[in-house]
Amino acid sequence: MATDDFFRARLDGMVDPRHPLAVLGRRMPWSQIEASLAPLFARKARMGKSREDADMFGPTLVVAAGGVSRAGRPRLPIRLMVSLLYLKHAFNESDESVVERWSENVVWQLFSGMEHYQSKLPCDATQIGRFRRVLGEAGVEQLLKTTIEAAVAMKAVKPVELERVTVDTTVQEKAVAHPTDSRLLEVARAKIAHLAKRAGLQLKKTHEREGQTLRRRAGGYAHAKQFKRLRQVVRRQRTILGVLLREVQRKMTTLAQATQDQLKPWLERAERIRSQRPHDKNKLYALHAPEVECIGKGKARKPYEFGVKVSLAVAHKSGLIVGARSFPGNPFDGHTLAQQLEQTGTLLQDLGVKPKTAVVDLGYRGVDSDISPVELIHWGKYKSLNAQQRRWLKRRQAIEPTIGHTKHDHRMDKCWLKGSDGDALHAVLCAAGFNIRWLMRALQRQRLAGSLKHVCLASIALCATWLVGLMAVLNGLLGAKAAQQRWSPLSPA
């Protein structure tokens, strides 16, 4: 009986089997990934509801809607969804663009476990976001851990090399506009007016027209450096926002309690924006993202960045990322080192190794007791270091290009995910995407090394054959000359 698959093109016949991504798809431990993530997606049993029923023997008590429900469409394969996350961050794609490019790229489909080419989208883009939320921070750390174990299994890195790591921090910026006071006040006013209208409150005045005019004037005064007029405009914006907040607070008492609970967080944030001043601490920099912090890393081109601090741990010799996590609250760099090394040890525990040496910059001074027994190496200890440790220290700055590639090539430069949980997931997934590209480059190096080895062996064999032939010719010539001298009639008797 004929099947539809008989007339479909197989991917293994369309793709070069030596392509790095195709080789990586064959070597990744997909069964291990599916076994570790399957419990997160198992259908949960419901208790059900008890109700009375009547049959021929009289009234009875039965349980309805209990057990595991089989309603809904089947879930997509875990390997497919994990592959989409890997490919998204490895090739710097969004949720929407990765599914569109997947439907056109046969190598990506082969990497995802497909057998036949399909031109339709693998899933809706929103399903990637839901899959990512279900995974949580522990799930995405498992994806990062798998890339490290795959590198060891492919002999691209030795386990002993992972005992020495380089640690540094950077800023993962949030997808928010630059937080000027004028813009924050206008955004808060517009948001409160919109929420009040949706809740059914009749406001005397929303100040919409005046708010937009003030926002435009503030931009013009700031550009012209007329700061006195700018301060007057900002003062008026604070006034109209306060008027609007007080009116909403007076009238919201007539609303249902559920509606009031929805309004209160936004009112608190708007009041926080209205009352904060330029030199205050713990300011609110985005109305929709209160977790955003202002972090200064001493960059001349960008004095302040708005997001969350992220720490990266990189294998000192090979450059493979072995740890990545976010740290809300903008802590001191040295206070993040113990937690970063703890995460790295957790990711490496199945390999039987753990960090023993951490090479860092001067921002991590004074935390030797917190990370004991791990040895801390930085420039402040230069005089007490031996020659080998000084060589290690000279390679510390190799983590800087790793941070740069993680930002510009793997989406860490801007986080679009919601909340502090989104920051944590995004940092780990960006590190996993970097490792995928690292593994592809390692496979290319191994293939090139194998090709060079075969070429060298063939050259040696050819040279040996040529030498053997040359020796045979020389032996023949020497033998003929000797025979001629022995039997020549002109030779003396």
List the helices and strands and how they pair.
Elements: H1 20-27, H2 30-37, E1 45-46, E2 49-55, E3 58-64, E4 67-68, H3 78-90, H4 95-102, H5 106-111, H6 125-153, E5 164-173, H7 181-199, H8 208-223, H9 227-251, H10 257-275, E6 293-295, E7 305-315, E8 321-327, H11 333-348, E9 357-359, E10 375-377, H12 387-394, H13 399-408, H14 419-487
Parallel strand pairs: 5-9, 9-10
Antiparallel strand pairs: 1-4, 2-3, 5-7, 6-7, 7-8
Helix pairs in contact: 1-14, 3-6, 3-14, 4-6, 6-14, 7-8, 7-9, 7-10, 8-9, 9-10
SSE string: HHEEEEHHHHEHHHHEEEHEEHHH
**If helices are DSSP runs of H or I spanning 4 or more residues, what is the number of helices?**
14
Report the end-to-end length measured between terminal Cα atoms: 95 Å
Structural class: alpha+beta
| Percent strand | 5-15%
Oligomer: single chain
Please state the average pLDDT score. Answer: 90
Report low-confidence residues grouped into runs of 5 or more.
none
Quick one: overall form?
A: extended
Instruction: Give helix % range.
Output: 40-55%
Largest sheet report: 6 strands, mixed
> What is the alpha-carbon Rg in Å?
33 Å
How many DSSP-defined strands? 10
What is this entry, summarized?
By secondary structure, the protein is an alpha+beta fold.
Describe this structure in words.
The chain starts with 19 loop residues before the first helix and ends in a 6-residue tail after the last helix. The longest helix is centred in the last third of the chain and has 69 residues, at 419-487. It contains 14 helices and ten strands. It is α+β, with helices and mostly antiparallel strands and 493 residues long. The chain has helices spanning 20-27, 30-37, 78-90, 95-102, 106-111, 125-153, 181-199, 208-223, 227-251, 257-275, 333-348, 387-394, 399-408, 419-487; strands at residues 45-46, 49-55, 58-64, 67-68, 164-173, 293-295, 305-315, 321-327, 357-359, 375-377.
